[in-house]
């Protein structure tokens, strides 16, 4: 790990998926990197997504060819390099003739199948929903539809995996650390940072501003850099319901407002429904899914499913703020999901690169391009490398099922349900999590929902978890199943473990 007291090559401001990806990319090129995040990693937008790695079928209607092409390419890459966190799924679109004609959907799916190389996923097809398992749970009126492929992902753990890899390659990751201010001093930045214990300064040869919804504020207020670029804040909300239909396929549902809503199997027992697109004018702190949004999502599901839902059925709701690049569109759903990299580099002075927009699927390519933009200041750095490099936990041959079975053979005392959950979270790093454990008793206290004391300690020591919320809603989704007493107990144990490590 680098000693940041002597300065770093790159300071990354923001610990979402793009910040973690950039830290990983730059560290892997031999650069010294510091990543600072004011809260928890993936604490905002990057843990509030629809949990998909996808090309964005609906973006074809907005002629976002480049974005869809890049996203489809990255979908293939992530299937290969993040195999324990990204897995294939079939998506079913019931056909509603009054909304989009059959020929239009066929044409869109043909493009979706062929805009980029597709080696691991089956193509699209038309199906009779009343004659296949894909129609289970749908109302009888929906007899025809289409099926295509995309992928599901654990979004927050994808961020953690990138941060872990960055740290393994020498980066310093500091959460709960705020950028107070920064000033240029010739060829370097002098940054003032604040954590729970102290205020301190760090020198950096370049700054990458990946603050998501706060990117404009960091650039203008903290770094003192004027900019004509603007960010559009769009709130997207989701709800989690008890399982609403059998099968592992997802649904993509057309609405009268021309938007689409996904229904996705979630954490085995639930159905995830989302998302909305609401222009946000308020501060992007602690946003919440509104009553109107919850009702909208319930209506969207109820139009298609036999099992009807009301807001009272909602087990969990969450909302995230998408920091989209402001392209002037009046419709929040039509604002581009593409990203823009803005480099501010006066002659002979240290650069700052700001990231506007972006989406989960294209984070790796964005990170690669961001580091490339800074290459003129770091001529000794190595070249791009992440396209063929597996993330920690995904360094296995064969399928996910085969890798999980090999771990089951290594730890035969693990019950299959627990093995499956732990593999989803850690992949081959499960060996590191379990360490010398030889029985269930060796895992310590069982908090329920497949969460034990040994894994909790691992989250604190190796994954920057500092609160119950970090564990219950980001490192895991155990908060869906654990009662208040168990959640309080987990918070107490986290405090105890962190106290032994003398960390803020």
CATH class of the largest domain: Alpha Beta
Q: How many β-strand runs?
A: 20
CATH architecture label name of the largest domain: 3-Layer(bba) Sandwich
Strand content: 15-25%
- Overall outline: globular
Major sheet characteristics: 10 strands, mixed
* Overall SS class: alpha+beta
CATH topology-level name of the largest domain: FAD/NAD(P)-binding domain
Mean pLDDT: 94
DSSP helical segment count: 13
Gyration radius, in Å: 23 Å
CATH superfamily of the largest domain: FAD/NAD(P)-binding domain
Overall structural domain count = 3
Give the helix level as a range of percent.
Answer: 25-40%
Low-confidence parts lasting 5 or more residues at pLDDT below 50? none
Gap from first CA to last CA: 19 Å
Explain how this protein is built.
With 504 residues, this protein is an alpha+beta fold. The chain has three domains: 4-45 and 157-230 and 337-388, FAD/NAD(P)-binding domain (3-Layer(bba) Sandwich), CATH 3.50.50; 86-152 and 232-328, 2-Layer Sandwich (D-Amino Acid Oxidase, Chain A, domain 2), CATH 3.30.9; 400-501, Helicase, Ruva Protein, domain 3 (Orthogonal Bundle). The chain is 30% helix and 24% strand. The protein has 13 helices and 20 strands. Strands 3, 4, 5, 6, 11, 12, 13, 14, 15 and 16 form a ten-stranded mixed β-sheet that branches. Strand 12 (250-254) and strand 13 (260-266) form a beta hairpin. Helix 1 runs parallel beside helix 4 (155-168), helix 1 crosses helix 7 (363-373) and helix 11 (453-462) crosses helix 13. The mean pLDDT is 94.
